Fold this protein.
Amino acid sequence: MAPIGWSDLIYLGMGLGLGLGSSLIWRLRQKSSQPPEPAPKVPPPPQEIHLEKFDALSEQLKQTQLAYQMASEMSQFKAGFLARTSHELRSPLSTMIGTLQLILSDLCDDPAEEREFVEQAHVAALKLVKLIDEIISVAKTEHGTDTMDIEPIQLAKVFDEVDDLTYLQAANRSIRLEILPPDPGIYVLADLPRFRQVLVNLVDTAVAQMEEGSISVSAHASPESGCVHIWVDDQRSVSAWSESWDLLKHDLECDATKNSDNSQVSSGMRLLMNQTLLSLMSGKLEVLAVPSESEECNFNRTQCSIPLATL
């Protein structure tokens, strides 16, 4: 074996240097092509974690309380509606039974009186059928059997129709009815026949319970709340309101005296039906606070709120 000379050592060193340099360059290229490692997440301070959990629990508690309150109010409303319905059905039915019993017991003095009792029973039967039809209509709408056609409706057009349907009744009782035309640009989201029915019922109820005075119907748009508030202001006596105008605690005796002709549905029943129809249209019916008797111009206000349509 020949001895290694200086030239051989130089070539060997150059080869080792080139190999190590190439390996180093290759490793640097591989490292630069890889994505940088993400910075470690710094957990928030314990105090911020507790505040976030507290806010979330507080919001969840509010939603739960709201849901419970709505369920409770709906349960009370259903109970009130059932009580009102049973009373309304019992009244004409009792009239029919009473008059027919008089006839069957031969307690009539002559055929003319017997015919009069038959006519009373017939009127009571018609009222019963009308009431059942209205209740069935509301129930079908509430349960989705009769669907609502919710669409943008010009409020001024509805007010004109309500005026045409109510002015004659008010004039016959010498009551001044003023329906203020709203802005033609105001549109509401509602089912036209049912919405018109609600407004007509509100005016008819006020007219039926008044001996004299005036009724004013006006509209007030509230873009911030997304609703249109319709006010029915009238001059009914304060005694006609108070507790008897609670939508769930209406006085039955008051209705019996106001409805002695057995020809119409009582005001309490109409209010409950109106409230149901408005709620199905995402609206609301409220009886606002009654001014005190000491005020010179005393009036009562029923507020009907309906969603505002954006065109």
Remarks:
- Residues 178 and 264 are 24 Å apart (CA to CA).
- Residues 63-147 form a domain with the Helix Hairpins fold (CATH 1.10.287.130).
